[in-house]
């Protein structure tokens, strides 16, 4: 029995989990759950994951959700390259910090802007939401100072999560060029992660297009 | 020392372990366990069991704690009024947590893990803010169990929750 990933490409966390599968090198059977059609609320999906979120991973008798937990699981279980999520406590701690930064800071600040636009008929971006996102982009730029990747000089699962998040907001049209380290790192990830264009860029662009199509003119 | 020198994100908690600086509470818990833990019961090595603990930790940060913070913090720190739509989001998250505890005495299985320590810090804070736990039978029995079994609970969390409440009361009184 193989590994199944319940996935929706416009979701940044979902793309992050798929990128983790790509860098780990594990084949996943991708099942699309269309959030615009509310397929996540179907009884058979809630039975799998009571929180009814994508991504959700099923591997034999285990069900895992939250993209970051999925990435850590895939790396721990299937990665030949241990540098993707090293067991050394200090090296791992930096990666964990970056994953929690994505979960608790960067992604929510983007979500606060984009979720109401996609699902609640909002067409504005408010200054009170722009400032926190610029601050979070600034933090990421500092984390990358002197480093090729977010947790040091090697690609890790933290890059998968964070680049999925950043590429989405960049595709919306947010100007990330003031964050020179972030811009250069996005390009680096796009070359370093196998299958990046298909697994991430297409979904990020679909997300960007969906958000832009619902925004009033002059919001960015 | 200025915290921004060791943590560019200038958040608490931050630790300094002989020059190794780390922030994000859940990353700190995991580091302390991996570096100093005597056995793996708080954070199992088995990837499948560990993934459940991880999922609960991310659930706390990204959903449960986040929704409470979204409801209470604008009132406490920015003079806003309570938003019933945000309360509804909390209730939805609590329903999920309640269902996760249906067949599991602790947050990630049959014994105490890091997930319980993280979640109890959240739940105890919102309880003291006046959030009504009475509809959540599983959460109440879990909460009682964690208070009893987490070593040093009162010292590390219980009495500090009261300090938080004091601070909030002062902030709200000053705004009136």
From TrEMBL, chain A:
This is Uncharacterized protein. Residues 1-82 form the GST N-terminal domain. Residues 88-217 form the GST C-terminal domain. The lineage of its organism: Eukaryota, Metazoa, Ecdysozoa, Arthropoda, Hexapoda. Homodimer. InterPro entries: Glutathione-S-Trfase_C-like, Glutathione-S-Trfase_C_sf, Glutathione_S-Trfase, Glutathione_S-Trfase_N, GST_C, Thioredoxin-like_sf.
From TrEMBL, chain B:
Residues 46-171 form the GST C-terminal domain. InterPro entries: Glutathione-S-Trfase_C-like, Glutathione-S-Trfase_C_sf, Glutathione_S-Trfase, Glutathione_S-Trfase_N, GST_C, Thioredoxin-like_sf. This is Glutathione S-transferase. Residues 1-40 form the GST N-terminal domain. Transmembrane segments: none annotated. It comes from the Eukaryota. It holds the Pfam family GST_C. Homodimer. The lineage of its organism: Eukaryota, Metazoa, Ecdysozoa, Arthropoda, Hexapoda.
């Amino acid at each position: 029995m193989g590994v199944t990933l319940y996935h929706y490409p416009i979701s940044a966390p979902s793309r992050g989990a798929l990128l983790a599968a790509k860098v780990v090198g594990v084949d996943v059977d991708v099942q699309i759950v269309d959030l615009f059609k509310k397929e996540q609320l179907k009884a058979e999906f809630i039975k799998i994951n009571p929180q009814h979120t994508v991504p959700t991973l099923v591997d034999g008798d285990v069900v895992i959700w939250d993209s970051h937990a999925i990435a850590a699981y895939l790396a721990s279980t299937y990665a030949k390259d241990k540098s993707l999520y090293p067991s050394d406590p200090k090296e791992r701690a930096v990666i964990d910090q970056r994953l929690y930064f994505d979960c608790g800071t960067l992604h929510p600040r983007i979500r606060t802007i984009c979720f109401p636009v996609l699902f609640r008929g909002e067409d504005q971006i408010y200054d009170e939401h722009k400032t926190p996102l610029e601050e979070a982009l600034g933090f990421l730029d500092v984390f990358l100072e002197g480093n090729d990747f977010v947790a040091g000089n090697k690609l890790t699962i933290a890059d998968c999560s964070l680049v999925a998040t950043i590429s989405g907001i960049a595709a919306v049209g947010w100007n990330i060029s003031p964050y020179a380290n972030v811009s250069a790192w996005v390009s680096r990830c796009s070359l370093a992660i196998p299958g990046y264009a298909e697994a991430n860029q297409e979904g990020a662009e679909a997300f960007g297009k969906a958000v832009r199509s619902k925004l009033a003119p002059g919001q960015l | 020392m200025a915290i921004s020198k060791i943590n560019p994100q200038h958040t608490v908690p931050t630790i300094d372990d002989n020059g190794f600086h780390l922030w994000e509470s859940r990353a700190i818990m995991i580091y302390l366990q991996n570096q100093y833990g005597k056995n793996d019961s708080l954070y199992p090595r088995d990837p499948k069991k560990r993934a459940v603990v991880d999922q609960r930790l991310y659930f706390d940060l990204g959903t449960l704690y986040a929704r409470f913070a979204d409801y209470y913090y604008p009132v406490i720190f920015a003079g806003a009024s309570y938003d019933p739509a945000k309360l509804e989001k909390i209730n939805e998250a609590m329903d999920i947590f309640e269902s996760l505890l249906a067949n599991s005495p602790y947050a990630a299985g049959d014994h105490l893990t890091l997930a319980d320590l993280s979640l109890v810090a959240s739940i105890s804070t919102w309880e003291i803010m006046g959030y009504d736990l009475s509809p959540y039978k599983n959460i109440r029995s879990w909460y009682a169990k964690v208070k009893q079994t987490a070593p040093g609970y009162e010292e590390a969390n219980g009495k500090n929750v009261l300090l938080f409440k004091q601070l909030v009361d002062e902030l709200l009184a000053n705004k009136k």
